[in-house]
Amino acid sequence: MAQHPIFTAEHDQLRSSVRRFVDTELRPHVEEWEEAGRFPDEVFRRAGELGFLGLHYPPRWGGAGGDLAAEIVFVEELAKSGCGALAMALSVQTDMATPSIEQFGTDDQKERYLRPAIAGTKIAAIAITEPDAGSDVAAISTRAVRDGDVWRVNGRKLFITNGTRADFLTLVAKTDPAAGHHGISLFLVDRDLAGVSVSRTLRKLGMWSSDTAEIALDDVAVPHENLIGLEPGRGFAQLMVQLQYERLAGAAASVGGADAALARTIAYAGERRTFGQPIGRHQVIAHRLADAATELEAARSLLYTTAWRVQQGEYPVAEISMTKKYCAQVQNRLVDTCVQVFGGAGYLHEEPISRAYRDARLGRIGGGTDEIMNEVIAKRLGLRDG
Amino acid sequence: MNIAVCVKQIPDPAVPGELDPESHTLHRVGKLILDESDSFGVEMALQLADKAGGGDVTLISMAPNNEVSGLRTALAMGAAKAVLVSDPALAGSDALSTAKVLAQAITRAGDVDLVLTATESTDGYTGTVPNQIAQLLGWPSLTFAKHVEVEDGKLTIRRQTEAGYDVVESSLPAVVSVTAGVVEPRYPSFKGIMAAKNKPVDQCTVADLGLSSDDVGWSGARQEITNVAAAPAREAGEKVEDDGSAHERIVAFLEALKVI
Asked: Could you say which of A73, A92, A119 is where a domain stops?
């Protein structure tokens, strides 16, 4: 089968490697982990050992020196495990909490945080969202105040994926409340510092085996050498660069999750019989699945094309937002179709398609809602200020 | 310790294959992949070389159209290099011709202490090539190894039998066929995959190996596939209505199959 031009023979081989990892080491345990509300930390270590957590990072820090296309292969195949939580938690590690360290961190910061994150020996979380702020990063209230060699950090962070198990947080805090976007900084905060506490583990509609936390920071003394790039006020710009990975990884997870759900549903439509034939032979079902497959193909093409533009050195912010939004919307429509085709069986807890349905919903919310994506797109269209 | 591993590149078993209506041989068009049964030999070789504290693992393969996709997978796992024999004259080769080619390719690789193979290929299933290679090289042949050890130049295997296993010892060099599951093959890392791009593949022809094209391919084949028939469709199973004695009939059925 002809591949999209962003993929080479090496990406195909990577795909089979990740697929084998998913098939043999992840998928057989998904039910158990989902029920337990957590998958083992060992998954990070194992993925690190296999080199999957540093695909797009330089060999100098233990990475594979690959490109964005390699990362997309990884996230897509993880999502095909049928467990959105795995794809999300691991891509927080690779695409959300660490790109800013690689791009803007000092060598010392890379040595202490990026290298172990790539090796899977340290688990990372990204701490942006708060009870009263999220995509409006400038409105965050977590405050960092310089006190000699340390910054004293106070605040609350909410919806933090990997929050209960993280060894460190890539944390957004305000260092100069008067400076707007230029008053925001990124800190690497060790979870075991005095004053960092997980105040709640949050239960969710889907993504059950991904741990999601509310984290409190009470007068936490973060060493100045843990301020990413050592210069305050750069946090907003650093986050923006990180966002392209985050949003494209999110889109890849949507495409992978949708792909697995559709494949499962097509197989089911070939087995389940009503009115004397497999339901997939009924035109009404066949056409619904044909429509779903068409939308998925369009989403996939958009993802690969946008990734290609990023690989050409562009930063097409509107298209990245379109991709993230569209892929998540297609996934949501598709899993709804899947549950409909499964009928009663699809409504059962034990049928994995019901998990696909629950997990998909976050795609339209996490990493910026559809509405936030539309704001970005509308600005690019000249319809909104910004 | 230098180890050669014979690997076959086959059409993806996940894609329905087609037989040539004339020759009854498998169509080998498009991309070929590493026969999964060979990944066990590659892993075993890597582990043995590692344990021995050095030495190269060399892949030996014969494939149409200079196909290297499957070799790249094994190189990505960690093999150092490959010898690939590709020649239009090889089309139609039977098992013995294949063994002749592989034996010559092993000789060409040079300085080999041990040859590992799978017990049989996934697309051909003759299961005769390993023994033939050993015979042609004049080396001992050990088969169906589910465990392989080399110590002080002595080879010891556990040979899978119906009842358990036999312990078989041999001097080196030798040819060993290993069973699926002898070791757990590693997943190639992306670093390994990228490195494999630049590993040497010695591409050679029948003439390079000092063989005549009369010895191989259609002209050298001593076996011919005269006919191929589709496997009979699976028949409906026997239904056992439970009248209180169903368990006895099921036990009798399983006993007849010799599974209990």
From this structure: A119
Q: Which of A126-140, A252-266, A293-307 has the lowest mean pLDDT?
A: A126-140
- CATH number for the domain spanning A226: value is 2.40.110.10
Structural domain containing residue B39? 3-256
The answer to whether the CB of A142 falls within 8 A of the CB of A157 is: yes
Q: Per the CB < 8 Å rule, is B72 touching A55?
A: no
The last residue of one of the domains, among A210, A235, A260, is A235
Rounded CA Rg of chain A: 21
Q: Which of A127, A132, A128 has its CA nearest to residue A162?
A: A127
Q: Exposed, middle or buried by CB within 10 Å (0-12, 13-18, 19+), for B140?
A: middle
Give the Å distances, CA to CA, from B98 to A29, A196, A216, B205, B219: 43, 66, 68, 13, 13
Q: How many CB atoms lie within 10 A of CB B13?
A: 12
Instruction: Give the count of domains, chain B.
Output: 1
Q: Are strands A212-223 and A150-161 parallel, antiparallel or unpaired?
A: antiparallel
Residue A4 lies in a domain: no
**pLDDT for A46-94, tens place per residue?**
999 999 999 999 999 999 999 999 999 999 999 999 999 999 999 999 9
Residues A230 and A241 in one domain: no
Residues A247, A227 share a domain? no
Number of domains in chain A: 3
Distances in whole angstroms, Cα of residue A76 to Cα of each of A7, A27, A259, B125, B138: 13, 14, 9, 35, 50
∠ Cα B90 B92 B95 (to 5°): 90
Asked if residue A386 is part of any domain, the answer here is no
Contacts of A51 in chain B (CB under 8 A): 189-192
Of B69, B187, B194, Cβ closest to residue A64: B194
Strands B141-151 and B114-118: unpaired
What residues of A act catalytically?
A: 246
For B4-124, where are the alpha helices, taking DSSP H only? 36-51, 69-77, 95-109
Q: Is A138 helix (H, G, I), strand (E, B) or coil?
A: helix
Question: How is residue B1 written in tokens?
Answer: 């310790």
Task: Examine the domain organization and report whether A145 and A42 are in the same domain.
Answer: no
Pairing relation of β-strands B174-178 and B114-118?
Answer: parallel
pTM of the model: 0.87
DSSP string, B162-223: SSSEEEEEEESSEEEEE-TTSS-PPPPPHHHHHHHTTS-EEEE-TGGGT--TTSSHHHH-S-
CA A250 to chain centre: 5
Instruction: Assess whether pLDDT exceeds 70 at residue A260.
Output: yes
Q: Is B188 on the interface with A (CB under 8 A)?
A: yes
Are A280 and A358 in the same domain? Answer: yes
Q: What is the distance between the alpha carbons of residues B1 and B49, in angstroms, rounded to a whole number?
A: 6
Cβ contacts of B193 on chain A, cutoff 8 Å: 10, 13-14, 17
- Interface mutation vs chain A, best among B35, B73, B187, B197, most A CBs within 10 Å: B187
B8, B35 Cβ separation under 8 angstroms? yes
Cβ partners under 8 Å of residue A339, min gap 6: A346, A347, A353, A354, A357
CA A350 to chain centre: 25
User: What ipTM did this prediction achieve?
Assistant: 0.80
Residue A58: which of A70, A76, A40 has the closest Cα?
A70
pLDDT tens-digit readout, A4-61:
899 998 999 999 999 999 999 999 999 999 999 999 999 999 999 999 999 999 999 9
Q: Give the separation between CA A40 and CA A33, rounded to whole angstroms.
A: 8
The whole domain housing A313 covers: 237-380
